[in-house]
Amino acid sequence: MSQDGNLREDTEEAVPSVDSENPEERIAARRLRIAARSEAKKRQELGDDSHEKKDIKEEARKSQHQVEQSEKRMIKLQSDGTELVTNIQVAADSRESQRRTEVEEAHRLRVEKLENEAKSSLEKFEEITRKWTVAKMKEIPQDLRDSLSSQQQLCALLIEDKNKLIHELQKEMKLSDDRYVKDLKKQGEDVDLMIERMEDQVKFLMGSYRDELDQIENSFEHERKILLTGNRKKWEQYMKERQDKELENVMQRMKRVEEYEVLLQQLRTEDAEEYNMIKIKLDTDVQILEQQLQQMKATYQLNQEKLEYNFQVLKKRDEENTITKSQQKRKITRLQDVVNNLKIKCANQEKQSREENQNLTDDYTRIMQQYKHMQKKMRHFAAIDAKKFEEVWLMNEEEVKALVEKALDTDRLVHEQQLGLAWQRPPLAFMERAGPEVYESGAGLESGSSEVERESEGSGGEHSGTVSVKMVKKLLELLCDEAGFLIESKLLKLLSPLEKDEQSLMKLDSIFTVSYTVTAMCMLCHLPQAERGEFTSSCSPTSDLIHPNDVLVALRAFTAHHCRPRSPSMLGLGGREDTEDAAYWEAMGDVIPEAKLKIWGALETALDKYHIVLTERSKFITDTQSLKQQNTELRMLLHQYVNSRVGVPVIASRGFVSRMCLLI
Amino acid sequence: MSKSPGAGMYPPVAKLNLAADPRKMRRIIAEDPEWSLTVVPLLSNLCLQCIVRNFEEKPILEELLPRHKDYVLERLSPSLPLQVTANLISDDGYWKRCCKQRWGLCDVSSYGHSWKRMFFERHLENIIELFIPDATDPKTVLGMVPLCRNYVKRLDISQLLPPIKEPQKSEDDDNSDSASDMGMDGPSMDHFDFGILLDKLSHLEEFHVVYRVKGCGMNFEWNLFEFTFRDCESLAKALKSCKTLRVLRIHQSKVDDEKCRQLVNNLLDHPSLRELNLSHNLIGDRGARAIGKLLNRSKLESLTVYDNNIRGPGAQAIAYALAKNSSLLSLNLRLNRLGDEGGQAIAQALLKNRTLKWLHLGGNEMTEPTATVLSQVLVQNNTLRSINLSCNRLGMDGGKVLEEGMCHNSSVVECDIRLTEVGQESDYCISQVVRNNQNQAHTKHNTEENLAQTSEHY
């Protein structure tokens, strides 16, 4: 049994096979296999870890050291062994090379020897052949025999030499054969030795490998043991600590559990009481709340309906609103468009008007220039016209004067010759006058007006001259104060922050404008003097300060000052008075008075009659003259006729007839 | 308890009695999803079994569900004809069974962990190795081509049989042998012609060949180990036609200068050749010159010509090429006869070269002058990682010079100076420097690895 057990143990220890007959053993084998696999896996993982962890490497230094050492030792052993084995080969090599050199040497010697031998034998052979010729020469048989025997001897010698050589060579061959056999034997021995050494080497190496492996394993084992014990110690320590702690925890827990149980009991009873109370209270509350709930439900119903209605209304409104909104939006967009258009238009308009304005200003300046030019021209023409006028005047006057003179002459003639009356020259004052007297009178008027103006100015200047600057100032201030009503309140407000002088200045300005307008209005309305004066006195405070005597003068000056810009056109042309001129010219025309004209008329008629008579008389005269001529002619004709032949009378008669006709 | 060891001891007996086997009576086996207690097998299983039985006449595999496919593959016989299985079955399990059945011991790791590749490569190798010219029909080889061309990446031919009809005239003398090769007996001495095969294997990358007979024992004759000129010609042409070849190895085949030149001439400008191994041959200086020419007209990364007969001039030719080369990483000239002349030339070339990492100059009769130049190389060149100078009589002075050179170097991690008579002191110093360099390289490598890991991790 014990043997069996041992055997089993052995088998198990060696390799429990999965093919074994015993199921238990198979199970064990499989378990081992699984364990090996899992261990391999674990090792792989650990290996992965160890690659990353360098501390382990550091610890494993010892085993690594061992491994390295073993490796070195093994390499050394191996190389030593190889050397030991190859030593044989090297020795054989060296022997072989030595043999070769020897063989070479022997070969050389042999060749030399052979050559020498060949040479000597050749010499001998030649000697023999030479002797043959000598022998041929011999006549004597004895000699011949001698020589033949000697030849035979020599040949035998030669052959002996050769044989000797052959023998030697054969000996050498035998020797070398022996040597070859010996070499073969030696080499066989060498090979055997080599095999033996190799086997030894293999054995030895195997043993040493095993030793080294054991050592390495031992070192690993040792390390592992150390690690294992260390870890186990730690593990146990930690386990103990844990046990203690757990025990403590359990005790504490038990204690606490008891405490909590007591507390719980207490709490439970209290809570039960409280619970009952609260339950009752809550029941009543529930009832009340239910009632309220009913009420609330009713109100809720009501409210819901109301809200529904409101909702509907609002919905409607909302719809309307949306419609109006959309409309408004559309409108806005439309208006926006319009605005944009208008803006564009406005801009265009502005631009246009600006251009127009520019054009107009240009026009204005141009027209102003033209106007000025025109005025200049006008003045020029006025002067020329005046001159012309004067010249025309003078010419006409001269002409008229001549006519007057002629008329007067005629009158004188009529009076003296026809009527036979004494003629007296009527007084003609204007005849002395020459040139347009009326013009001069206009200029004088003009100058007179200017003189008046000057006078008024002079009076003004005198006035102003008498009144000092102070006075003027005072006067103006007074004016300001008195005519304060003329100033607008707004202006006053505006002026208030300004200085006094400036204030008064501005006030004065406004007052003057107002008063000026008033006065202008008065002038234009052609108010009566008195009224005007009243008005001015009442409305214009300036007149108060002007003396009443000066008022008229001042006013005239004022009007003159104001009318001047309106009357420059009347200056040259309208200034003339036609009446005087007409009178002048009338006077000229009336040189012959009415009575005289009547006389002239009567005279004319009488003369006309006289004329007619005279003309009739002249006519009669001519008639008589012609009749006298005819008479003479006829007499001549008759005379002729009487004196002339019968044929001619036709022609003569014809001419006569025509003349007669003519006369008829 | 008592049963389990008993059952383990006699499993076949237990299987006979269903009831006795507790496994058979279990309702559930977690590890076997197909397990069921029902005595009547499923129809689908019956069908699948039928398919398995008649697979040779009617191979149905691709149409099946993956589950059924596994079932069928598991039960197919490994002795099915290759014509059926070669291009149909890609499952490694089946080919594993084939390999195990045929050879027993297998190391799939050297075949890229592909059982199918292993099977076909070894199968093809077997066919070629047992091919007897004039006796075997070439169709046996050619027939295999369409079946295995997609899976064969490497061919390691370890023997090539000569024709059965042994030429009686052949004599021990090499000259007469080669003459007879060229003469009337020529065709009968030729081996298998690779020209018919190599250009058809579109995935071939490595090609190893040895012109010899394995295990001839007391039947040994020189002409069993013959690499005729015609063989060389056909092989060279075949190699030229194989554009995917990366590694070429011709061992122990008596490749002399002429054959080497022929091979190299056909390998010039090869698009993919990276490794050339012509060890244990008879290459001399002319062959070495040809190899030097090849160095700069190909993309060779590794050149191995140890145990040949290259002397000074040949080494000079290789050195001249090496000085201009920028692709070669590894150069092995072990057991040649370079001498100081060749050694110095190689070392001078290394002053200019910036790519070579591994150099083996063991057993080359080099002495102190070479060591002087090499110490210069050690000072100036910082790409060289490994240098092997064993079995050269460098002497005490040479050792000192080398020691000085090593003091200024920080890249060499391997330096073999065994049996060079350099003196213990220099030996110790040099090994010290090498160890330092190794440590530095190691730490550097470690930090790089750590960095890579951390970068991956993140």
In short:
The complex is a heterodimer of chains A (664) and B (458). Chain A is mainly α.
Uncertain residue segments of chain B: 1-16, 167-187
Q: How many β-strands of chain A, per DSSP?
A: 0
Q: Average pLDDT value of chain A?
A: 79
Which term fits the overall shape of chain A?
elongated
Oligomeric state of the chains in view:
heterodimer
Identify the overall geometry of chain B: globular
Q: Characterize the largest beta sheet of chain A: strand count, sense, and whether it forms a barrel.
A: none
Low-confidence stretches of chain A: 1-13, 50-56, 438-465, 525-544, 565-574
In N-to-C order, the SSE pattern of chain B is HHHHHHHHHEHHEHEHEHEHEHEHEHEH
- How far do the termini of chain A sit from each other? 233 Å
Strand content of chain B: 5-15%
Topology as H/E string of chain A? HHHHHHHHHHHHHHH
Helices of chain A, by number, come to 15
Name the biggest interface: A-B, 22 and 24 residues
In DSSP terms (H or I, runs of 4 or more residues), the helix count of chain B works out at 19
Main sheet summary of chain B: 9 strands, parallel
- Could you tell me the mean pLDDT of chain B? 83
